[in-house]
Amino acid sequence: MPRSVNHVASRARRKKVLKLAKGYFGRRKNVWTVAKNAVERGLAYAYKGRKQKKRNFRALWIQRINAGARIHGLSYSAFIGKLSSKGIELNRKVLADLAMNHPEAFKAIVDQVK
Questions:
Q1: DSSP string, 63-106
Q2: Is residue 2 assigned to a domain?
Q3: pTM of the predicted model, to two decimals?
Q4: Residue pLDDT, tens place only, 45-97
Q5: Does residue 69 fall inside a structural domain?
Q6: 30 Cβ partners below 8 Å, 6+ apart?
């Protein structure tokens, strides 16, 4: 009995990968083996980048809160410690936004904590 290879499915699989490789330079966009490797690596970097984005934003928020707190004579760690002891539950994203865009509101929070 002849061997069945299912060209329809394998062609569709290759088309899917080559579509993801659209915009790549040189052979990475149209040669199957090169494109497959490039797309796999790109998807791995994308997965890793989604995790790193969260870390980077948290670090940015901490820097902004620290800068805002130091203007009012507090370090970041002292400010966060006093916030939690007073029971003020604002996350770092909101605090960083207040420190950057609404300094008077951030000053009110700092005065409440002191």
A1: HHHHHHHHHTT--HHHHHHHHHHHT----HHHHHHHHHH-HHHH
A2: no
A3: 0.81
A4: 999 999 999 999 999 999 999 999 999 999 999 999 999 999 999 999 999 99
A5: yes
A6: 18, 21
